[in-house]
Amino acid sequence: MEIDKLKKILESLLFVSETPLSPKKIASFVKDAPLDEVLKALAELKEEINQMDRSFQVLEIAEGFQLVTRPEYHKWAKELYKIISKTRLSKASMEALAIIAYKQPVTRAEVEAIRGVDVSNMIQSLLEKKMVRILGRAETPGRPLLYGTTHEFLIHFGLKDLTDLPKVSEIQELAGDRPSPEFLKEMEGELRRRETKLGLGPVEETASETPEAPPASDSIPETSS
To answer: What backbone phi and psi angles, to 5 degrees, belong to 134?
Structure first.
């Protein structure tokens, strides 16, 4: 297929889609264009649109591509639709979500060891909002549930994948709250350890590790989000 025609087709698909489209999914729609041609066209389309200095851009989000409004125009877009997001999270829920995001797979007890309070209701709320999911059970006494983030989490925060996680303070600011100094210190340390593990930054020794969580069974029903 001619590359210019393919780019117009891709642009129309991105325009009408409310969720990120993966190259494989796009190729399943455009049956006369092989995956390598779709990938090439997506790359060119992304570059062309992003250089147009328009109010929108193409981003790679959650292993797919999406046409989105540029951040400087979010204010007016939200006014138009009067969006009150059902996934809006409290400061406490955001802190619990950030812990899960950076330490996953993680148990409820491990989250509570960092926050210092019971997080059962917060985790249940995050499950209902499809921000986290149950990954399985830990091989520890009581076999507590293990939690991790979801595909919807990546979409909600505009992340390409988990290696694209922002600083904890940036996650907090998305919710309109500032993190507590204690929480920020703990999670920034976790971010440094994660970056080192992924080979994204220099090896740094942290002053203290996360306190070991006591064995505990999880009272949350085993449901998937």
So the answer is: -85, 125
User: Please, what is the end-to-end C-alpha distance for the chain in angstroms?
Assistant: 40
Could you tell me how far CA 143 lies from the centroid of its own chain? 26
- Residue 154 structure tokens: 């990546």
- What's the rounded Cα separation, in Å, for the pair 173 and 17? 27
Looking at the chain, the whole-number percentage of residues with pLDDT higher than 70 is: 68
Residue 187 · residue 168 · CB < 8 Å: yes
- DSSP label at 21? B
CA–CA distances in Å: residue 176 to residues 89, 129, 173? 9, 18, 5
Residues whose CB falls within 8 Å of the CB of residue 166, separated by 6 or more in sequence, listed in order: 157, 159
> Where residue 24 falls among pLDDT bands split at 50, 70, 90?
very high
pLDDT, mean of residues 144-158: 87
Domains of the chain: 3-81 (1.10.10.10), 91-197 (1.10.10.10)
Angle among Cα 33, 164, 38 to the nearest 5 degrees reads 5
149 forms beta bridges with: 132
Tokens of 38: 């779709």
- Interval 154-164: pLDDT, tens: 887 778 787 77
